[in-house]
Structures are given as C-alpha cells and as structure tokens.
C-alpha cells in the first residue's frame, strides 16, 4: 500500500526549472529571499555538477513576468530553453515535453515558481504519464505557507516524492568517495554552516 | 495507489460557496481578514469570469449567523441561492444537491466557513457520491490553524484535492492566449504583487 | 483508494476521555491552557448533550499524574471510570475495552493527554479491531507541535479521522431544527465569538 | 521625563507618503501584501476624508523603483508631488521640505517604503527641526521584522509617536457625532470585520 | 532618569473598562478569544475582589458595536456606566472623567478594545492630567500584533506602566496572608495551570 | 487501505543512531539545541534501559563532520560502531546492514542528522527490504522546518511510522507495573515538567 | 539622558533566585522547558563558579506552589534561604532584604518565576532603593510572550538592565585568561553548540 | 528628552567587526544562516565601498571559536586585525581601542557575534567614552530571539542607535547622484528582490 522507494539515479534523472523569472519571484513569500535565491542556485549547481540534462522554461518573458533570472542562463547556456507562448502548465507545451522525452530519463526533478501552478501542474501531468517526479520543495516558492501546504498535499497524494536540493544532491552522489572535493565545494558554496565547519577544519589541520 | 490527476475543466466544473455570512466570518481566525476577504472575492470573480455555474447557500440568515456577504449576492444575482432551514451539512438539503445536479457538472469547486463543518461535510458527501471535489483552501476559513489542519487531513484522506483560488484560475484557463487581458485584470485586482509588476511594466513600456 | 466517509451518528457513537489528569496537564504545551481547558470541557458538554455513552480512564491517579480533572467527574458522575493500574495503552486494560464493547457502539470519539501515547495507542488498537475512530484533535494535548504532528500522521495513516469538538458536535447534530436552543447554548458557552454574535443579535432583536 | 501627549489635530496635521512605488513594494516582506495595500489606501482615504494637506514623493520613478502606485495619484490628483532626483532622505530635498512648510502644519503623519530609510530618515530630520512626527507603522513596510523593529526603536528613541492608520483616523475624528456615515464608510471599506458588523446590523434593523 | 516605582495600592486605585462590546470584540485578533475572554473576566473579578471602584463605558451601544458584554454588567451592577454618545476618547466625555474623579483615586487601571484607540487615548489623556496609569495589556485587544506593539510603545513612552491582570492582582494583594482562600479561588478560576496545581495538592493532602 | 498497527515490541526492536556528530549538529536548526540534545540522549537512555540492540554509525569522522558526540559512545561502549568510509545512505554500507541483520530484529527505530538524508535514505531502504521502520522525529534534526516537512512526508508515504522518543518508550514499556522506578527515572531525567510533578509529589507525600 | 554603563563586577554582585518552585514552573510557557531548565541551572552554576553571594527564596513551599527545585538546593547548600510566609514581593520580606544587605553588594542579578511578579516586583523595589539591577531574562519565565513583554518594559523603564545568563557570565569573567578551563566547562555544560565546537576541536588537536 | 538625530557621515564613521568566526557562527540561531551570511558580507562590502576605516577583531582564533571567516579577511586585507588574547569585551583590549582612536572617527558602526556580549559590551563601553554607536542589528547574531531582544534593549537604553546594513548604506550615501552604479551594484549583490527589479528593468529598457 505504500509508495515504493524510487531512488534518484544520476543516469536516470533530468532537471526541470520552471518559471524562475525576475518578475514572478516577487510573488514568492513563503520563504526568505536570501534563502530562496541560494536554494535555486544550489539546485542549478548540482544539476551542472552531476551533468544532468536540464530544461529551462518561462512564461511570457516579454511581459511583466520578466526574464529568466540571468544566473540560470549563465549556468546552462546550452540547455533547451522553452519560452512558452501561453501555456500555463508547461506540460501542455509540446516542445517542453519533447525536450524531456529527448533526454530519455524517467526521473524528473522539478522546481519552479509558483508552487501550486508552475510546479504542481507539470508534476501531476508527468505522474499521469508514468514519470517518477521529485519535487524540490525548497527551490520552489509561492505566495504563503497556506498555498504551499495545499500544493504539497495535492502533489504528494498524486505520487510525487517531496525532496530538498540537499537531499537530491546526496541521493544522486551516493558515496563521498566518488568525489569529495566537488561535492564539498558545492555544499561549502550553498550551506554557510557547512562552509564554517570546513573552514574551521582546514585551519586546524593546516596548523598541525 | 496514487490519486489520478483529475484536472479542472471549464466545461465540467461548478462552484459552491457555503455560508460566507457576515456573522460567521467573525469566527474565522486562521487567516488575516484582509487576505481572506480578498480570496473569497477572487474566487467569486473567477467563477464569474469563467462563467461557471455557481451555487450559494447560507445557514440561518435571520439569526446571529447574519446574511450572506452582500458582495457575493451582487456578483451572482441570478445564482441558485439556498437558504437552508437547518441542515448543517449543505448536502443534506435536497434543494442544494438538486441545484448541483442540475448543472450537470462532476467537478465541484468548494469554499466556505467554517472549514471543518461547512466545507468538509458537503465535500465528504460529494466524494461519497462520486463527484470530484476541489477544496479552495484559501477561500475557506475556520477558528485556528489546528482545526484547519485537522479538516484538511480529513478531506484529503477522503479524496479531495486541495487547491487555492489562484491554482483554480490557472488550471481552468489553461493558456494565456485564451484571453490575456481578462485573466490579467483578475490577477491585478486580487494579487497586489502582480498588480505592481503590471504597473511597473506598463509605465516602462508606455515610456518607450 | 480513498477513505470512505464514515459519518458520525448519535446512535452509533461513544466517547473516550483518556488521562485528562491534573498533573499530566502540565505536560501539554502545544495549545494554550485557556483554550485547551475550554476544548476539553466543550467535548464533555457535547457528549452529555447528545447523551453519548462516555468512558473515563486515568493512569496512576494516586501518584504524580494527579487525579482526573474534577469537572469531568462532575459532568459524568455515573460514567464507567477505569483507573488503570499500570497499562499505558488503555486498550490493554480489559475493563476499559469491555466498557466500550458494552456500549455496543462502533464509532469511537477519543481525546486525551498526551496525544502520541494516551490517544494514539488506543486509537491504533481500536482501528485494528475494526472500530471507526474519530480523534478530537483540539481536546488532545502534548509536549509541542513536533510531537503532535508526528502523532497525527501516525493515526491518520492507520485510518483515524481527525476532527475537532466543534466538527463532532455539528456532525452529530445534523440539523439545527432538532434543537436550536440546546446547541446554541453549547456553542455560546464554549465559543466566545459565537457568544458575542448571539448577544449582539439578542440585543438588537429585543430592541425591536 | 515622559513624552507629553501631543494629540493629533485635524487643523494642525499634514500627511507625507514616501516612496510607495510599484517596484519598491516588492521589497516589503514584514507584512502581508493584501493587508499592506489595504493599510496604505486606508491612510490615503483618511487623509482625503479629513482634507489634510498631503505630500507625495518618490525616488527614481524612471528606474527599477517604478512609478508611484496609481491609486495614490488618483486619490490626490492635486497634491504636491516631488519626484526626487536622488536624495534618499526626502528631507534633503528642498522642494519636499518647502511643500511641508507651505502647509503651515506642525504635526506630520508619515508612512512609506522602506521603513528604516524612507520613513526613518525624514522622521528623524523632522523631529530635529521641532516637528511632531506620527509614524503610521502599518502603512510603512520593510524587508522583515528584524529590520522593522530596529527602525521603530530608532524613531521612537528620537521622539516619534508610533501609530496606526486606524488610530490616526480616530484621534483626528474625536467624536462620532462629527460625522457618523463618513467615518463608518471609511472603516467599512478598510476593515472587513467592521464591514461585517455593519452588514449584520443593517440587515437586522432593516428587518424590523 | 528612570520611571520611579509607582506601586499599585488597593486604597488608591480605580478600574476603567472601556468598550468591551460584543461587536467590537470581533475586531480583536492579537490574542486568542478563549484567552482574551478569560483575561477580561479575570480583571473584572479582581476589581470586585479588591472592591476597587470600577467604571464602565461603551461607545454606540445601539449600533453595530453592540452592547457591553453581559458578564461585565452582571459583575458590576451598580458601577457607573457611561454610554458615550460619540466621543472616541472616553476622556473627552465629562461624565466619564467626573466618575473617575469622584472615586478620588490617582491610580487608574485600564483595559479595553481596541488597544491603540479606546485604551491608548484615555491613557494618554489621564497621564497628561497627572494620573498614574496602569495598562492591563492582556485584557486589552486589537487588530494584530503590529498595531498592538505600536500602541504599547506610544503609551509607555508617555509614562504608562504596562502590566497584566495577574501582576495587578499580585501587586494589590501584597501578602497572601491577607486572604489565602479568596485570591487562591480567583487564580483557580482564571489560570488552568494553577487550578491543576491546587487540585493535585488537594487530592494528595486529602489522602493523608 | 490503511496502515496496520505494527506495535513496537521490546523483543523485536533495534535502534539505529545515524550521524549524530559534533560538526553535523551545527546544521540542525529545526529544533532548539537544548531540546534536541535532550531528545537524543533520551532516546539513547531508553535504548539502554530496554536493552535494545543499538547500532551507531558516522560519516567521515576525521573530517569537518566531527566525531560522534561523546555521550553516545559512553552510553553504548560495546555497540557496533560503523564509521562509514563514504556511503551517504548508511544502508549502502554492508557492515551496517549486517550489524542490523545480526540483531535478528524486524522493527527498526531510527534517528539521525540530517533528517532528509541520514534518516530518510536508510529508512526508505529498510522499508524496501521489508523492515518495519519507526522514525524518532524529535531525535532527528535538519536545516529548517521546510526540509523537515518534506522529509517526513516522503518517509511516511513510503510506510514509515513517525514517533517521538516518549512514544517509543511508552509503547515499549506497555505497563508501568513492569518497572515504575526505572521508567520514572528516565522520564524525570528528560522531561522537566515530569520531574517537577515527581518532586512536588515526593515532597507532599514525604511530609505526611 | 541615557542609562550609564553600569558594568557587572564580580566583587560587587549578588544573585537572587526567586520562586523557582516545582509547582510554579508549570506556569512557565514563554520558553521551552528544556531550555528554561538549562538556563536556570546555568545561572546557578555561574553564581557558584564566580562565588557570588546567592540568596534563595520561595513562596508557600508547603502548598501547591511546591518546593524549590532540588538542584538549586544542592548547588547552594549554605545560601540564605528565605521561605516567605506570604509576601508576594520578596522585597517586602525583611529577612530577604537583610540577607541582601548583608552581602554588601550593590549589583543585584535576579531571576525567577513568574517574571511580571516574582522578578518585577523586587526589581522595582530594589531600583527604588538605589541598587543596580540586572534581570536575567532567560532564567525568568512566565505565562506567555505577551505577559513577558509587558514585564520587561516595566522593569526597563524603571532602570533595570536586561541581560542573559551568558551575558552575565561573560561580563563577570572579563578575560578568558583568568581561567579558560573553568569557564569553558561552564559553557560546555550549558550550550550544546559550544560543547560541539569543543569536542570537534579536541578530537582534531588530539589527532595531531 | 529624546535622543538627537546623530546622522551617519562618511567622513566621521568607522566600522568594527567583532568575532565573526567560523566556530562562533554555529551559535547564531536568531537569524537564518543564508540571510546572516549575506548581511555580514553586505556590511563588509559597504564599508569597503564607502572606504570607511574598518577594524577586525577575534577572540581565541586558535581554539574552538575558529578563525575569522575568510571572506572578511579577503575584503579587508590591510585592515587592523586584533586577535585578542583573552579579553571578552573588545574595548578592554588596548590595541583595539587604539586602532579605533587612530581612525579619528567618532561614529562607530558595529556588528558581531554574539550580540549580547561581543556587540553589546564594546557598544556600552564606547558610549560611555562619548562615541556615537550604531549597532548593525541584522549583521549581528545570537542564540535566539529572547537573548537578542534583551541585548537590544540594553544597548538602546544606553544610547546606541539600532540600524540595519541597508539603512547604514543609505544614510552614508545621502544622494543617489553621488554614484548610481556603485550603490546599485551593492544592492543588487545583496538584496535578491532588488536584483530582480534591476534585471526586469534592464531587460525591458534594453528591448526598447
């Protein structure tokens, strides 16, 4: 009766970043802006670190929603980038779905703005088509806690797995021995407490 | 094992507004009054915008519960309006159920006051009769977060989908190209942050 | 796949009040003491109002846990009162289970202190024996929100329905026409906002 | 040793609205946007209701800060409107100070975005020049509670009186008999709970 | 430079209860209704217990503000009761001030609804006339924490002492030996945790 | 359709303590450090009290993660202690799984740092292999409430039971008559409110 | 106009612990019990560490308030211990004041339960007699944040300095070179994060 | 009676950064780590931008407190850096005070970890010597909100002005015309919402 453990696998996973646009970000109020910016960039950095196929999409870039945040464009200069002409659910855009299918991956890691629409709709659609969907909750934002909770419950009930960028990174990496430095750097860049641990450690061992 | 994605469809949906009465509203304390008023009116406006059949009902208008908030009457002057003589669960009122069935819709979008009674009871009854029920969580209010959480869990376990008015509007609209101005106006009227984006945009492009 | 709507029914329901003892109450910190006291007494008053068979039980009354709060003894002078000699899960006490079975009811409305033990254990046991269990979340208390949330999830996953005393009262009453004054009095006594509505109403209509 | 009671007086007061611009509003996160929008408009409406001289000012309207929110322009079509070319502290702008002095008022009611800069700086400057300053705390917004608290303490220590728009309206009005309908309308438009009270009352008395 | 310790004294103190009306209470959202009701009644009970002259006042009883909560009328059947015809600041009503002066007391204990108006205005006026004012913060309520904090700061800066009903009772009583039973009863009636302590104690000592 | 009640049983249970390391603990911010330290030690003490086989594991002790907190080593001097060379999911470490299987227990009680990785991953793996898993939520910590909630939902959906150390102790003990003093001492050491109850009781009964 | 910096001085300071009794502690709800217990014991330990004269007092030990928490008696076996026969303000008890004056100290460090009575009253009295008073805010507890805030403001306005046990320890110690080990041990025992830092450090330097 | 407006002046101000060390940062729990890291670096960047003399100091770098965070060393490679051998109050270290006096500035902008010790002590000492002190509240951190509030009140009562890094930057800059690009870059780097405004603006105006 329980959900089986579908475990993230580097070889099976793609990342979808939906509507992280400069205008829309002003709607996000369920998470502190400093923390949210950091989480989104951490997710982007891990996608790059694990060389996961990544797909970017936006809604109405020319209008008030604003352009994709420039950092994401810089991190993924060659990623498929679908500027949707109007579809609210990105899954309704054929180019977007085709880009996903072209990756050949069955595990979709998704984050976006706002959670109950830009994340939830394609999540529900992807689940309905048999994909495994992993929602990166802390890189997705919305109006307030009430709307977030509603969205989480709807996606969870439909079979999505709720994760965080840190959990995603750890589940993909599997074993520190695969690369200590690279993952350590990723964490140092995006987790101030971890950076402090490393800096304390470095200083003490350097002094030996 | 997971809930399938039952997607809201303009052609299949009706809206139920249950007991948004001037007296009962003083019981609502799980959400700020300014935000709640806005959410309820936003839901009403979207019902009108999408021309969804809408049904109003109240409990004991003549007593301390007070009348339906006048704005709702103004927005839906011709909607079926069932002033229940005593049934707490609106679904126990035959006129109410008949009004719903008369719409021929199978997707019910519901909101009301208070969540664990006026929303939860008809939701559970409607689910038991095979309707798809979409609870508009942010246009429903109750005594406090604890009672809200209990109510949400009970409805969700029974199969209801938890949504927000913004999610409902987006899922119904499907594609901005269906009508940019109308939906934009709806959002501008009920989402201050969105209104600001639009106003900034308008000014800048007007200055070109 | 969803839980069916098992609806509370006056004729089928019994109430279990577990370990509301003067000492144990000092452990309850997930809810304000004024509100909690009111909720517990409201549940007791509704049990009496609907003449539901009610069973009281305590754990170690002679020790630091302290006696049952005197108000509950006064409200239910003749109710079965099982002072358990040591069983933590009240369901492990034969007298308690026998008292329940003697009522002949299949719907159990339960509340107690602390939620994850005194409420959750008998709830899980009762569900395992095929009872329908309705947890009155706001008349149950525990150490903090974290332990409460854990307990709610465990009970919900096992099939319990989470309700509040107000929801229970409304679902049992079904129709105001069964008795306006009695239920109105119950609400006036335990919901200050409702009392205010009634008092405003009374004054205005008396002035006519 | 205590601050004397400087009481707001219709004849002595002017209102300063500082930098309520569509871009800057996205920085405000210490208050819910629905509530904040309502508070700002309520302050504007009361300024108009009491016919207080009102001065508008903005910072860099042509840049990312965005234009003044259009509602304010509509409410005060003829008010002095100082688009500052660069001064951060509006008091450093001679036109602004002159506009204030031209009113001949010694009581300044101020609100703006963000609290610790656009409100605090002119407040401190005005106090230093001997004005009485009344900060409308709920029509002023900033990044978060921590920055707000710092700003409030700095202004209070310097002698500002912290008020809310409702307090300002009441202190200016003095006596309901001056005009029941007008003030009632103002409150009904901006306090949902008050509107509900009035609607309940109207219905009951209309039914007499 | 610091405020001197002006200590409450049974012989010098009077109590002012301002606008605790059934309609206005729906505006109070900075404190849980169960707790607020309890605090207001606790303050009333202590005023009666210490036989302090108490003055009641209301604003527009016949309109939407509603009547004084009936419990207060019952507790103080013979207290001066000033139904103000329109003055918002009760101190602007001559009867009210005269009733206060008729008590001959210089220490005023005040509580009311809403804090920044009905409490703050007469507090500031009374301080300006040389009274010592003690604001009972937990028996005064308002729209939200933001407006409360503003009001507290304004009154404190003007010289008011902020207290709670429990602090007031303790400072007036001075010594338990003056009357153990009476004060114990007052606390047992209004502090659930204290009632539990007493009940545990009674049971254990009765069992000796 | 509901989870059956799998009840903790002293004879069937083992405890897994994952990565409670001095460095990693600085990452835990969803729970107060005083409370968290107490909860972890309470879980350790109960494991010892019930003589449950307990397995300790750490990740990179020599690096910035730091050593296992010394208290745990002292409480379990002979427990299997697996210092993992790199596997992030402890279940990927054969020694760890073998140590678990060597206990012959099917009920696994697990806690660790951080919840969404060090707890969630082995929980999901163990469930997939048919173990019953009981997550001790209050002895597990992570970055913030958002990441905790995501992790809880993922584990719960996969079939884990969410408990607290107090619930675990009570479910294992079953009946106070098995040993009043031992369990009482455990609670007195880790629940200040309980300690107070006992101390009050002891004093009163000693005085008899 | 500002308070001068009266700096704590080992040679000038005495500690007053007021009414930390097992029954009264159940009233404290503005701080988590684990944290509060730790803070009170930390204050006691620092008083002992700096050999400050310490005075204990209780109110009605034989009644429901319960005895002084035993740990305090153990830490200060020879301290003056004034069991007050009835005075609520400890300063009204001559023995208490005499014990203080006998120390010859002018700096009083005070903590107790509950803040607005047992701490605030003697604080105000001591200030009135010219003592310097340092309130240890985190070792003092009360019913809720609202009552705490009121109490803090009243004491601060009267001239008390608000500190924490950690601040007190640091201000008394002045220089780590006076004794690294002793103060380090105090912090390690009462600040889990500090203990972790030390344990990480010890392990790394031991490994050199 | 009020504090005069001492306005920050580029020519008169120096910055003190006290004990932002990698170990001590794990004690900071009154502010989210992402936000805190950003605030500290923002303060450092503004000190550099305005070319304010800046002084760094640490306590026990070789021990568990850890080294100064490397970013600060990089930003201020030539700043006076006083590694205190033991003084807890940095003002007790002669080199530190001399370094300050050597700057010839009378306005001290201070931030550090933890607020009630490393910030409050030198703040109080500096005020006592006649300096004007501006505490950057959001670049200073401590154990929790309770200890922060105590510390703020103590410093404020002694005459410190509480500010934020954003307020400091704005008060120093005075007029955007002094340098739009530089300050804009500073804000864009440290205020995500501002960065979004700029990016939206740039895109729209570039498209013209």
Automatic annotation (TrEMBL), chains A, B, C, D, E, F, G, H:
TM spans (from-to): none
UniProt source species: Alishewanella jeotgali KCTC 22429
Official protein name in the record: Putative isochorismatase
Domain Isochorismatase-like: 14-165
Gene3D superfamilies attached to this UniProt entry: Isochorismatase-like
Superkingdom: Bacteria
UniProt signal peptide: none
InterPro entries the UniProt entry points to: Hydrolase_YcaC-like, Isochorismatase-like_dom, Isochorismatase-like_sf, YcaC
């Amino acid at each position: 009766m329980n959900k089986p453990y579908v475990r993230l696998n580097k070889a099976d996973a793609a990342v979808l970043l939906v509507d992280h646009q400069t205008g829309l970000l002003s709607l996000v109020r369920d998470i502190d802006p400093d923390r949210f910016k950091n989480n989104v960039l951490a997710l982007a950095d891990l996608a790059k670190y694990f060389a996961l196929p990544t797909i970017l999409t936006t809604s109405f870039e020319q209008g008030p929603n604003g352009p994709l945040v420039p950092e994401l464009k810089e991190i993924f200069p060659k990623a498929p980038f679908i500027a949707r002409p109007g579809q609210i659910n990105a899954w309704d855009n054929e180019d977007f779905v085709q880009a996903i299918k072209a990756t050949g991956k069955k595990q979709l890691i998704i984050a976006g703005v706002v959670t109950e629409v830009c994340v939830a709709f394609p999540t529900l659609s992807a689940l309905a088509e048999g994909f495994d969907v992993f929602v990166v909750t802390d890189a997705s934002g919305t109006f307030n806690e009430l709307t977030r909770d509603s969205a989480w419950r709807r996606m969870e009930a439909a079979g999505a797995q709720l994760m965080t960028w840190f959990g995603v990174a750890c589940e993909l990496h599997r074993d520190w021995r695969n690369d200590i430095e690279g993952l350590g750097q990723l964490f140092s860049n995006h987790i101030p407490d971890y950076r402090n641990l490393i800096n304390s450690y470095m200083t003490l061992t350097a002094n030996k």
